[in-house]
Amino acid sequence: MAETTSINSAKSALSHPSILVIDDNPDMLMLNQLILEMDGFVVRTAANGPAALAFLAGPLQPDLILLDMCMEGMSGPEFLVALEQEHPKTFAAVPVVYLSAMQQVPAGKHSGFLRKGLDNCQFVEAIHRFIAAGPRHCDGDTAGNGGSRTGICRDS
After folding, report:
1. Cβ distance 148 to 113 under 8 Å?
2. What is the pLDDT of residues 83-119, one digit of tens each?
């Protein structure tokens, strides 16, 4: 019998949820990786959109994509368009969450956003909530609810 690797079997090989962090700022990339790994997440990183798309072409798929909104070369929104076109199954199955310093982010095909500057506990708790909520798409501007620094979108 030929050995095959599916998204589910690759995930089950990992004992903790996995996250792909995409950020062109090496300090933010390292900081987010450290915080998430300290909470037990398996973290993969990419310094730009094309590197992330190359990773997603492989057998391991993350449980969540944490995406910097403003990057050189390929912005977060441009990455989402490419993800939907090049990896539609991943796009449909994996929540994509913007990480932004902005108060709100424009409508788009992301699952929500986190504002930069959350304390570590709030950040990790929000990541757990996004993974539990699954992929959703924002159809309007998303702003944190009630002064919150996170925005979670409704089901698509």
Report:
1. no
2. 999 999 999 999 999 888 776 666 667 888 888 888 8
CATH architecture assignment, domain 7-152: 3-Layer(aba) Sandwich (3.40)
For 34-48, write each residue's pLDDT tens digit: 999 999 999 999 999
What are the sequence ranges of the domains in the chain?
7-152
pLDDT at 19 over 90: yes
User: Model-level pTM?
Assistant: 0.79
